[in-house]
Specification:
Number of domains: 1
Number of helices: 0
Helix content: under 10%
Order of helices and strands: EEEEEEEEEEEEEEEE
Radius of gyration: 17 Å
Shape: globular
């Protein structure tokens, strides 16, 4: 299992909103696609790189660190968000273990994920995946260790958002506390029906400061998580995520946010 963490710090943007109508064992596999980490309005360019540091734990034991960063460029008059997540997880328990050293990158253009990649090692297995959006589909190219490449193509018409776009940060829960959407899970490379449930509007303390956020629970056939997340009109920031994926549980908590 893998904590979805690719929705980390990211700039806000307008996207289509559709209304609709337990944790004990380690360890989640890291998506990371936790944290991090969903397009864009007319935003001023951010000259610095915004970096968020997280601690990952399972059963109350610290098992790794995650660093996410994002910056914005303007290419041909189009504002583009570039982001990346570096995860280093090393967990060993009597009954199981999990090890991960991966880098995940993505590019959002006009509010749409247009490029994605994940590479590194997961439990000593090499991972090398690249994803690209064209006019009709999102294509995943899985580069195998034997030199071959597999292709997985997902029709653009089959999903509303990707997991990288964190729609839960801006979903309209004013008429329904539960919203279900077809979401492209970039980690699983498949479309899932994901239900989002607004639990409450609350606060999260980071660096001694209380910041407003919404607590949203989301679930699909592969995972269930609870996320503390906020959109302030320009920026989406995930402060914490607790969840499981069937074989283990995890907690990811933000330690600090910095401009580098």
């Amino acid at each position: 299992m893998k904590p979805e963490f690719t929705c980390y710090l990211r700039m806000g943007y307008p996207f289509r909103i559709m209304n609709g109508r337990g944790y004990s064992r380690p360890l989640p596999l890291f998506l990371v696609a936790v944290i991090l980490f969903s397009g864009m309005t007319a935003l001023a360019l951010i000259p610095s790189r915004v970096v968020t540091y997280y601690t990952v734990s399972s059963m109350g034991i610290s098992i790794g660190k995650v660093k996410t960063s994002q910056h914005i460029t303007e290419e041909g008059g189009v504002q583009t968000v570039h982001f990346e997540t570096r995860a280093a997880i090393n967990a060993s328990f009597l009954w199981s273990g999990y090890h991960q050293d991966t880098m995940e990158r993505g590019t959002l253009r006009n509010g749409t994920l247009v490029h994605y990649s994940r590479s590194g090692l997961e439990n000593s297995t090499a991972v090398d995946i690249e994803g690209k959006l064209d006019a009709t589909s999102f294509h995943f190219y899985i580069h195998e260790e034997n030199g071959t490449t597999r292709l997985v193509s997902i029709p653009r018409s089959s999903f509303v958002h990707t997991t990288m776009e964190c729609p839960e940060a801006r979903l309209d829960f004013s008429t329904h506390s539960r919203v279900t959407l077809p979401i492209l899970d970039v980690e699983k490379m498949m479309v899932v029906k994901r239900e989002y449930h607004l639990l409450e509007n609350t606060y999260y303390t980071i660096g001694g400061k209380k910041v407003p956020c919404r607590m949203v629970e989301f679930s699909d056939k592969n995972k269930k998580s609870k996320r503390w997340i906020n959109w302030d009109g320009t920026t989406v920031l995930m402060y914490r995520q607790d969840g499981n994926g069937g074989s283990g549980s995890y907690s990811v908590k933000a330690d600090s946010v910095a401009h580098e």
